[in-house]
Every structure is written in structure tokens, then in C-alpha cells.
Design brief:
Layout (H helix, E strand, L loop, with lengths): L1 E5 L5 E2 L8 E2 L3 H14 L3 E4 L8 H9 L6 E6 L6 H14 L4 E5 L5 H6 L6 H19 L4 E4 L4 E5 L13 E4 L3 H10 L2 E5 L3 H17 L5 E11 L2 H11 L5 H11 L5 H10 L7 E3 L2 E2 L12 E5 H13 L2 E7 L3 H12 L17 H5 L5 H6 L1
Parallel strand pairs: 1-4, 1-15, 4-5, 5-6, 6-9, 9-10, 10-11, 11-14, 11-15
Antiparallel strand pairs: 2-3, 7-8, 12-13, 13-14
Helix pairs in contact: 1-12, 3-5, 5-6, 6-7
Length: about 375
């Protein structure tokens, strides 16, 4: 099992759907979150991408110099960046970080945002280009000289003069719930990522990807992207979940869902179908709560419960083949400590970390600190 945390480069706070309790997106705060994850023993962190986020590559390059073991799962966007340039970027950051780079391939799911980036390809065309992109990118990182002529991309005499640390290339994490996405995942991904869906749905998706990979003579590992709301008791956790959306009203849900409805991402449609915009039916399977997806795009579900309950649910996902857990919680600084202190011991994760040498959760969020102090310190 590997557990990754999340760097909130699009903003953070105590509540969803409001500026109340919000935190400024600045490097000082992002560094705090990254260093907490590093010290607590998380394997790595996901840095998101998109119009609403600061650039993940620049952020990761800076954060890598302030951490020692933490890996960085960073988005590569086919169609926005040429594979030759992306290969040089990957090799450079892999060298700077001494092998701490992970690659998250993102084809995009919002046509309006993509048009703003200069991309006008259809859903399946984007995955076709992603396939070509990764054919070139992987060969370059493996040290090959590349001549390639495809439908979307062409390279003549491409080569990478300064290779990275990891061979043949940094691990590729890949999501995509459509048939086109799963086909590309089976061909190229090292770890297939799904958003948090009920166990049976995830099990079916795992089978599809395994079958797609087998057709290519490959094997793929599996991961899941989830939020977590963990407390000492189930009652406290469910109360915290309701607090998180206390400022989300019906109008905010309606506006958010109208925006999400334009997406051509099958994964996003799956997230919306779990809650159907109804805040009264959010526990979609035991302890899997869809409240985040009422107003947040992408990963919209959270595991909610006591440490024992959440650990049990994690084990259930692990039993069907999930090895990588990419987690987050609001606010991300405090919740990184809370999850590590409460859940790590129950799943025997990273027991070599000396938690008693770390700043405790109580010290982090005690009365002697205000939210503004956390941002500025």
C-alpha cells in the first residue's frame, strides 16, 4: 500500500462552496502542507492541474527543494505540451528531486476550459493524441532516438540528452473511465487511478483495465482518489462532514452541477450520478459520502467515520486490488496530521515514522494558532 496526500494549489479552507474559512493560495502555506506530508511519512502528494490551479510543475520544482522523501504526482497534459518538451521537463525534475517524480496523465474533461487552452479536439480524439504522446514520451525517457509519424504528432530525430533518475521513466498514473480512456490506460499506465466509487463499481472497472492491459501483454497496478473525514468516533466524523458543507445551499449546488454537466468526462458524469444533486442522499455506500461532489469538480467522494471505520473501508478497497490511495481533506494541513495520527497505526502504514517527534495535531490547531497564522508562518 502507498498513501499520497494532496497539495491544494487551487485553494483550501474549512468549508466548501464559500470563502468563509478560506486560506490564501501562497507558497508559504503549500510548503507547510508538503513538509507535513513529508515528515508524517506519506509516500507522496498529488498536485492538481487546470485553469483554477497554479502551475503544478513550477510548484513541485519549488517544493522538492524543501522536502526530502516526498514524491510528487504531477499532471502532464497531452495537447498542451509537446511530448519532447514534457520529456525534458520530467527528466530534469526527476534529476533535481533524485527520483521523486510521478506522472499523472490528464487528457482533460471540460470542453470550455480546453478551448481556453487552445484545444478543440473531441473526447476520443484527445485520448488518441494521448496515446501518440505517450508512445513518444516513453521512448524518449527510455533513452531511445525517436522518429514518429502519427495522426496528431510527429517527431524526427527526437532524443533526450539528459536522462532522469528512474528507469525506464517515472511511473505513469492514469485515470479515465471511458472505453477510450481505459484502452490507453491498458497500453501505457503503471497505476490506473479511479475516483472514489462504491466497491462493486471499482471492482468492475479494475477488471476492464486488467483486460485492456492483458491485450497489450502488460500488468497494471490500481489506485483510488478519495477525500477523508476521520475523527475519533463515527458521530464526530459525520458531524464534520455536515460542517464542511454547511454553507452550501441549493442555488450553489445548482450552479455547480450546471457547469459540470457540460463536461464530456465519463468519470465526472459518474461522480454526478452518485448524488444527483440531492444533499439528503449523500451516503452512497457504507461510509462513502458524495457531499464533496455537490460543488467540487473531479473527485467528489469522501470516506467518513472513525479511524477504525475508515481503516476498515481502506482494507476493503485493498482486498479488491487497490494499492495506491491518493487522499485529501479540508483543511489539508490539519487533516494530514489527523489521518496519519489516527489511521496509519491501524493499517500498519509507515510505522518507521517517529510520530512522537512530530508536531501533534493539537499543537497545530490549538487555540494558540489562528488560521491566518498557519498561512503566514
Amino acid at each position: 500500500m502507498e498513501i499520497l496526500w494532496f497539495i491544494p494549489t487551487h485553494g483550501d479552507g474549512r468549508y466548501l462552496g464559500t470563502a468563509k474559512g478560506g486560506r490564501e493560495t501562497n507558497f508559504a502555506y503549500l510548503k507547510q502542507v508538503a513538509q507535513a506530508a513529508d515528515q508524517l511519512g506519506y509516500e507522496g502528494v498529488l498536485i492538481p492541474t487546470g485553469k483554477s490551479c497554479i502551475d503544478p510543475w513550477v510548484a513541485a520544482s519549488a517544493l522538492a527543494t524543501h522536502t526530502s522523501k516526498l514524491k510528487f504526482l504531477i499532471a502532464v497534459r497531452p495537447g498542451i505540451t509537446k511530448p519532447t518538451v514534457a520529456a525534458r521537463m520530467a527528466a530534469t525534475l526527476d534529476e533535481i528531486s533524485q527520483g521523486r517524480l510521478l506522472i499523472n496523465v490528464v487528457a482533460g474533461g471540460d470542453p470550455v476550459e480546453l478551448e481556453g487552452e487552445g484545444i478543440f479536439a473531441s473526447h476520443d480524439e484527445r485520448y488518441e493524441e494521448t496515446d501518440e504522446f505517450l508512445n513518444i514520451w516513453r521512448k524518449l525517457l527510455a533513452g531511445e532516438k525517436v522518429d514518429y509519424e502519427g495522426k496528431y504528432l510527429a517527431v524526427k530525430g527526437g532524443e533526450l540528452l539528459y536522462p532522469g533518475v528512474q528507469k525506464p521513466h517515472p511511473p505513469i498514473y492514469f485515470g479515465g473511465s471511458s472505453d477510450a480512456g481505459i484502452a490507453v490506460a491498458g497500453k501505457h499506465s503503471d497505476v490506473y487511478l479511479t475516483w472514489g466509487e462504491p466497491i462493486e463499481d471499482v471492482k468492475q472497472k479494475i477488471k476492464k483495465v486488467r483486460d485492456a492491459a492483458a491485450k497489450e501483454g502488460r500488468e497494471v497496478k490500481f489506485g483510488i482518489r478519495l477525500h477523508v473525514i476521520v475523527r475519533e468516533t463515527d458521530e464526530e466524523a459525520w458531524k464534520a462532514a455536515e460542517e464542511l458543507i454547511k454553507y452550501v445551499d441549493d442555488e450553489a449546488i445548482k450552479k455547480a452541477q450546471e457547469v459540470f454537466s457540460r463536461f464530456d468526462s465519463v468519470g465526472q458524469k459518474n461522480m454526478a450520478s452518485l448524488h444527483k444533486g440531492d444533499r439528503n442522499k449523500l451516503e452512497i455506500s457504507p461510509n462513502l459520502w458524495a457531499g464533496v461532489g455537490l460543488v467540487r469538480r473531479g473527485a467528489g467522494t469522501a470516506l467518513v467515520g472513525s479511524a477504525e471505520t475508515v481503516a476498515k473501508r481502506i482494507r476493503e478497497y485493498q482486498e479488491i486490488g487497490i494499492e495506491s490511495f491518493v487522499l485529501s481533506g479540508y483543511p489539508h494541513l490539519e487533516e494530514s496530521y489527523r489521518f496519519a495520527e489516527l489511521v496509519f497505526p491501524l493499517i500498519n502504514y509507515n510505522q518507521q515514522v517517529e510520530l512522537d517527534s512530530k508536531v501533534s495535531l493539537g499543537e497545530i490547531i490549538g487555540t494558540e494558532h489562528r488560521p491566518s497564522d498557519l498561512v503566514k508562518s
